[in-house]
């Protein structure tokens, strides 16, 4: 049996707790506990992070793209002592690019 999602204008969500509460109210025909909604929330991000680590890219059509970004090692300056140079190690981070559909709607 397929689960239907209500089509309604969501409330402005600012925190994880508010997002989970909103998620609970959006799923129709299923009683979704706060604990279950929290697990869904966590799993979604675990899946995204795992996919980015494996494939270096994860696209959600109509929403955006998560991509692995590698930063080279570089020199920076100490804000307290601008003359002192510090070496910043190479690192990896996840970059997000918004889809054009959402950009147009902003």
Number of helices: 3
CATH superfamily (homologous) name of the largest domain: IHF-like DNA-binding proteins
State the helical fraction.
25-40%
Please give the order of strands in the largest beta sheet. 3-4-7
Provide the CATH topology of the largest domain. HU Protein, Chain A
Mean pLDDT, to the nearest integer, reads 84
Largest sheet: 3 strands, antiparallel
User: At the first level of CATH, what is the class of the largest domain?
Assistant: Few Secondary Structures
- CATH architecture grouping of the largest domain: Irregular
| Strand element count | 7
Label the structural class.
alpha+beta
Overall number of domains: 2
For the CA atoms, what is the radius of gyration? 20 Å
User: Overall 3D geometry?
Assistant: elongated
Q: Calculate the terminal CA-CA distance, rounded to whole Å.
A: 35 Å
Oligomeric nature of the chains: single chain
* Poorly predicted runs of 5 or more residues: none
Tell me what portion of residues adopts beta-strand conformation: 25-35%
Structure description:
The chain is of the alpha+beta class. The chain has two domains: 14-55; 62-106, HU Protein, Chain A (Irregular), CATH 4.10.520.10. The chain is 37% helix and 30% strand. The chain has three helices and seven strands; from the N terminus they run βαβαβββββα. It has helices at residues 16-26, 34-55, 100-105, and strands spanning 4-5, 27-28, 57-60, 64-71, 74-77, 85-88, 91-98. Helix 1 packs across helix 2 (34-55). The model has no long low-confidence stretch (mean pLDDT 84).
């Amino acid at each position: 049996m397929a689960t239907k999602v209500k089509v309604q204008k969501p409330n402005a969500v600012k925190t994880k707790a508010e997002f989970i509460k909103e998620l609970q109210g959006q799923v129709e025909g299923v009683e979704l506990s706060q604990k279950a909604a929290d697990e869904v929330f966590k799993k979604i991000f675990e899946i995204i992070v795992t996919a980015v680590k494996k494939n270096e890219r994860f696209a959600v059509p109509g929403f955006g793209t998560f991509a692995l970004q590698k930063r080279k090692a570089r020199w920076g300056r100490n804000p307290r002592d601008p003359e002192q140079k510090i070496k910043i190690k190479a690192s990896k981070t996840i970059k997000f690019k918004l889809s054009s559909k959402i950009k147009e709607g902003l």
